[in-house]
Design goal:
12 helices
Length: 306
């Protein structure tokens, strides 16, 4: 059997309400050479039963991997990458849909590139819209623009959820170990590592429906001292600074300072002492100088001491 060109990958957890919607958007694709790979993270509802029922009526392969223990999204992405059969991986949430021409648009755009360009990029990155057709975030500064996430986010300040097709062979080369310090560490650590090594092509087209619903939890709105996930976020900022310290300081100095600022904030949210924060910092003097500004910021914005 011919291997699929594209693996559409969805990590799932208690997704019984959303899977029929996701499935219907896959059934409508006008490009058919793809598989749907699902890694289920120990769902306690009818997610698995629904997926198995969808397997029976699907016009494309559906593969299901069931975790024995809850792994959270970052580990699930690693599992998905190393089990993908396609040449490209397209990551979606368990409640995200695809526009009808999503896959055919990608294939057409990819085939329009010359071989040298194809060889020199990791994949193509597009935009998302919500279920009401509203554009999410901001557009890229150029069409068919070759760049990386550092420049895209930190220089041009492009915002919002994006939609990406990446070469599986390259994704499998990225080895990133996450300590078991929290149930959630932001998966952007993996994508920044990928972006540090490779360029992408950014295209101003919408291909993914990023579904908004009442049960979405916005972690940023629940941040604060002792709150859930703060250890993971503290690690996230400290790792970005540690791994890309010189690169960020040289190329994106303002963001380099902001990252130190957020390292302090989230480390305090994780109930670390200021002395411990300075001791563990990559740039101890900078962090020590920023601490009074962090305290003032918290008092003004949140009316609390951290």
């Amino acid at each position: 059997m011919e291997s699929p060109l594209i693996t559409i990958f969805s990590p799932t957890y208690n997704a019984e309400s959303f899977l029929p919607y996701v499935f219907e958007t896959l059934q409508k694709q006008d490009y058919k050479n793809f598989e749907w790979l699902v890694v289920d993270d120990c769902s306690t509802d009818n997610t698995i039963q629904i997926l198995k029922a969808l397997q029976d009526k699907a016009t494309f392969p559906i593969r299901i991997i069931q975790n024995e223990t809850n792994q959270m999204v970052t580990k699930n992405i690693e599992i998905g990458i190393h089990n993908a059969n396609g040449k490209f991986l397209y990551l979606t949430g368990h409640d995200d849909g695809l526009t009808d021409n999503c896959l055919s648009t990608f294939v057409e755009d990819w085939n329009s590139l010359d071989i040298q360009t194809q060889d020199n990029i990791c994949g193509l990155v597009y935009h998302c819209e919500d279920q009401d057709g509203n554009f999410i975030g901001t557009k890229y500064p150029f069409d068919f623009w070759i760049s990386n996430d550092f420049e895209m986010r930190f220089k041009y300040h492009v915002k919002g959820e994006k939609s990406s097709f990446h070469k599986v062979e390259i994704l499998k080369k990225i080895q990133y170990s996450y300590p078991e310090i929290d149930v959630y560490i932001p998966e952007n650590l993996f994508w920044f590592e990928l972006s540090y090594r490779y360029n992408f092509m950014y295209i101003n087209k919408v291909l993914r429906v990023y579904f908004q619903h009442d049960s979405h939890q916005n972690i940023s709105k629940s941040m604060g001292p002792g709150k859930k996930y703060m250890a993971g976020f503290s690690f996230f900022f400290s790792e970005i600074i540690r791994k890309y310290n010189t690169y960020l300081r040289k190329n994106y100095f303002k963001m380099w300072v902001i990252l130190q600022f957020n390292y302090i904030r989230y480390s305090r949210y994780n109930l670390q002492s200021f002395s411990g924060i300075v001791k563990n910092a990559e740039n101890k003097l900078v962090v020590a100088l920023l601490i009074p500004f962090v305290i003032i910021f918290e008092l003004i914005k949140f009316k609390r001491l951290i």
